[in-house]
Specification:
Keywords: Membrane, Signal, Transmembrane, Transmembrane helix. This is Glutaredoxin domain-containing protein. It comes from Nonomuraea purpurea. The protein is α+β, with helices and mostly antiparallel strands. About 50% of the residues lie in helices and about 10% in strands. It contains 6 helices and 4 strands. The protein has a 4-stranded mixed sheet. Helix 4 (about 80-85) packs across helix 6. It starts with 5 loop residues before the first helix and ends in a 5-residue tail after the last helix.
Length: about 140
Amino acid sequence: MTRAWILPVLLAVCGSAAATALAVKGIPGAAAALLLAFVLLAGVNSPLVFPRSIGAAQARSRSEADGRPIVYWRPGCKYCLRLRMRLGRSARRVHWVDIWRDPAGAAVVRAVNGGDETVPTVVVAGRPHVNPDPEWVRAQLLPPA
């Protein structure tokens, strides 16, 4: 769990240090702008941007029941972030599995990708797709009930 927060915390700390240095030099406007940029970057790379993750076993059983895709992802992955942003509100209709929080999810991804933890890996109807086009993933979603 702590591994998911390393990058966001590091970004926030570095941004705070750089902003403090600018503020000490007497440039408060630039310090505030820099701090805001780093905090936003930390937020985008945090697990908070993604819908709540569930375990791989739970995602598999839910997907079998409702037919929704499973997205295996990890914080800090720019391709996962791209997929999440392009899905927009539709992202709530996908089962998200954070491979850094769920060892079983990481094992699924490694099995599909020849030992690599390449994400996003999207499983639709039992078939894995590595880093698919976000529009394709959106087309795989069932219409809302």
